[in-house]
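User: Sequence in, structure out. Go.
Assistant: Echoing your sequence, followed by the structure tokens.
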Amino acid sequence: MSQEKKHPWQRGSTELIQYSIKHLRSNNDFDKRRSFLILDIGIETLLKTYLELPAEITGTKTSFTKRQEAIAGNFHSLVQGVKDAAGERIKNINLEYIQYYHNKRNQLYHDGEGLTIQEDHLLGYLQLAVPLMKALLDVDLAAELEAELAEIEKRKATIQHFEKLLETINSIDRHEDLLLEETRNLKELLVNFFASHEFEEKLTEITSKYSLKQTDGVREDNTLIQSERISPKPAIINEYFGELKNLLDSIVVF
């Protein structure tokens, strides 16, 4: 659920930080770099916005002149200016860590192509940005970040289940009933975790490619009850799970 923005000065930094939260699950290196750079801009915007606000709003005792000097300086001056102005507001937030991540941004920005951003750097920067946003501009994005992290944990659990299932299938006699049950469990699990029309279509396409039709019975109107099951041939099974693993790899981040 998006935080309702009450004032115009909350909008800019909120939208930038929200962008990075929404792209936390991307498994594309370009998206990660872009998200990290946009997040850094969002934090810089947040710090400057706070210092630009009237003292009557922020409650700061720092003079307007001092705050303007901090805004006009480099990033270190900006961070120091917020430290001086915010005081108790940020007592539980270590702004030195923000300086660390900003230096990573400088390296990414100036050192050319080929550099990547690690997931823990993007997440670490976000975990500083969210409480800072709440402390300085009273915008709470914690629920949005927690929802993204919960989705990442779901995907991790899915991959672990998939890998365990693959180990099981590779180690047992390929009893058709057990294989059918495990395949159905896997499909149900994947559809629940990655519920989308496009994903389900792709999953169904892959499953049908390696399936054999069988007759399970006859209805009262004498029409056949048919279902599909994965071919029991070892080579077919290995190819099938290989394609499923590729499908998972294309959408899973960590």
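User: And one key feature?
Assistant: Residues 107 and 128 are 19 Å apart (CA to CA).
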